[in-house]
Every structure is written in structure tokens, then in C-alpha cells.
Design a protein that fits this description.
Layout: H1 9-41, E1 50-57, E2 61-68, E3 74-75, E4 80-83, E5 92-95, E6 98-99, E7 103-110, E8 119-123, E9 128-132
Antiparallel strand pairs: 1-2, 2-7, 3-6, 4-8, 5-7, 8-9
């Protein structure tokens, strides 16, 4: 009978592991690239694509709940906040950093109690959004 030759089980397992690792690496790189693109491009918004859902203010913190009505994600780390035409005296933060379309995010301004006369401005790369917190 003719002698059949094939690969050994050790070589077969090694090839399967190599293909699996290569496929996992390719998927990781693709997902990472998509996230980087979202972070770079995601700070463009128009005033009609941002909606204030609610505003709560007390002496410890003011929280503004905002909806991204845009069709693109927003990178909130690229946004600035101005209160009454000057930067806030205390820290502020946006949560989360990347906001998908049709999702809510929060602007938290610490140690600031806003009233009806205070004007909040959220400033992006090419535009700004103005709001008064009517508690």
C-alpha cells in the first residue's frame, strides 16, 4: 500500500493557534481604529442637535443632562464650558467621554450653584450651545 503523508498533530495545532492569534489581532486593530476615528471626528455638533433634558443645581454641584440628537458621536473631552462669559471657577466634567448618537450625557460643574440669570455655554470646535438653568 502507498504510504500516506500528512501533517502531525503538533503542527496542526500550531497552525490553528497561529491563525487564531492572527485573526484576533486583526479584529483588535479594526476595533481600535474605529474608536480612534470616533474620538478624532466626534466633536462636531449643531445647536439643534443638542437637547437639554434637565438641570439640577445645588451649592455642591450643578448637573446638566444633555441628549446627543446628532447622527455622529460627540467627544466631550473636546468641549469647553463657559459660565457667564468666563471659565468656571471650579472643575467640571462630562460623563461619558464618547457619547453615541441619541444618547444622554451629563455636564457636572462642581461647587457651583447656578440660578436663572446664569448662562452656561458649551463650546465645540466650530460652534457653541447656550443654556440657562431654570431651577
Amino acid at each position: 500500500m502507498g504510504e500516506r503523508k500528512g501533517i502531525t498533530p503538533v503542527v496542526a495545532v500550531t497552525l490553528l493557534i497561529t491563525v487564531t492569534v492572527a485573526a484576533s489581532g486583526a479584529i483588535y486593530l479594526q476595533i481600535n481604529q474605529v474608536q480612534q476615528n470616533a474620538r478624532q471626528e466626534a466633536n462636531i455638533f449643531d445647536q439643534d442637535q443638542i437637547t437639554i433634558e434637565a438641570c439640577n443645581s445645588n451649592p455642591a454641584q450643578t448637573t446638566v443632562y444633555i441628549r446627543n440628537s446628532n447622527t455622529k458621536a460627540i467627544n466631550t473631552s473636546k468641549l469647553k464650558v463657559i459660565i457667564n462669559q468666563r471659565p468656571p471657577e471650579e472643575d467640571y466634567s462630562f460623563q461619558p467621554q464618547i457619547v453615541d448618537p441619541q444618547r444622554d450625557f451629563r455636564l457636572e460643574i462642581y461647587n457651583t450653584d447656578l440660578n436663572r440669570s446664569d448662562l452656561i455655554e458649551v463650546i465645540g470646535r466650530n460652534n457653541r450651545f447656550t443654556y440657562r438653568c431654570l431651577n
